[in-house]
Amino acid sequence: MIYNKKKFASTIQSCLLDYKKVYNHKVQINDYIYSFENWKLPHSGSISVQLNDANKELIITESERIYLKKSKLLFDVRLYPNKQVLKVILDPVHLFRTMISISGSNYIIEVMELNSEKVMTTVLTSLDHFPVFELHTDRIVFIGHTEDGRPNKILEKNFEQLKEKVCYCESRSTHQLKLIKTSLSNRSLFKNNVEYLLFSSEEKILSKLFGPKKASKLLML
Fold it and tell me: Which of 1, 12, 129, 175 is deepest in the core (most CB within 10 A)?
């Protein structure tokens, strides 16, 4: 599979590559080839990356300015002995790599730059609910729960900030929030029992879309 960032500039969800059960598989994103070996999470699995053109050189870090013609180890389960790694997600649109793991009593969501170890942000959620989230260019948007397990909050965490921010809280005890997968860029669509909610990170606002007609136009994009 070959993915080009320019081609999918307006598409998010349809391009997320979620490798949960991959065996000796290779994927090309832009000029890089990602190789998955012994992929049997959470027990084993590694990802290496190299430039598609063998004559080019792969930059590990700008500061160290180390160049290699061979592949670079990008991820290995053995590098996380204190975590149970459940998923690794490659995002060819934003060029992020997301790792979902378990440590202690929490799920851990770690968003990293695709080809480096730089962590953009980390989010902890309860083990009672598998994390539901979406990535934007500069932040992560996710759902929070009440003590009794009802999904009632829309939260976001900017990559430049340490604190999580509540964008919306559903106070009606009979209503639950659900993330609707779309191809919207930097916008996330949610639904409770009666209406749709659209969060835009570019406008930094959350809008209510009353009724399914307006929302259906977004779902068709």
Answer: 12
Rounded to whole angstroms, how far apart are CA atoms 112 and 81? Answer: 18
Judge contact between 65 and 48, C-beta under 8 A: no
Least Cα distance to 111 among 87, 76, 129 occurs for 87
pLDDT digits (tens, 9 = 90+) for 65-74: 344 457 899 9
Q: Cα separations (Å) of 157 from 28, 140, 161, 167?
A: 29, 5, 7, 10
**Helix runs in the chain, H state only:** 212-219
Query: What mean pLDDT value characterizes the chain?
Result: 83
Note the pLDDT tens digit of each residue in 93-140.
889 999 999 999 999 999 999 999 899 999 999 999 999 999 999 999
Give the Cα separation of 160 and 61 in Å (integer): 21
Q: How far is residue 102 CA from its own chain's centroid? A: 16
By three-state DSSP, how is residue 56 classified? coil
| Distance between first and last Cα of the chain | 23
Q: What's this model's pTM, rounded to 2 decimal places?
A: 0.82
Q: What is the pLDDT of residue 66?
A: 43
CB contact set of 8 (below 8 Å; sequence gap of 6+) = 14, 15, 92, 93
Cβ-based neighbour number of residue 50 at 10 Å: 20
The Cα–Cα gap between 183 and 186 comes to: 9
